[in-house]
């Protein structure tokens, strides 16, 4: 039950984030901050997306091994 609640909370947060910030605002903010900041932001976002997919699809960890 705890993991279901954690997933629901995470999805709620991401959904609210999507509703409050349009993609144009995000891109504009990144370009105002500079190219290096934009590159680091893109790498971080890609890393978070990969991490989320790994967590949601059950990746990582040793299941059932003794």
Automatic annotation (TrEMBL):
Residue stretches spanning the membrane: 36-54
Top-rank taxon: Bacteria
Keyword set includes Transmembrane: yes
Keyword field: Membrane, Transmembrane, Transmembrane helix
PROSITE patterns the record matches: PROKAR_LIPOPROTEIN
Protein name (database record): Phosphatidate cytidylyltransferase
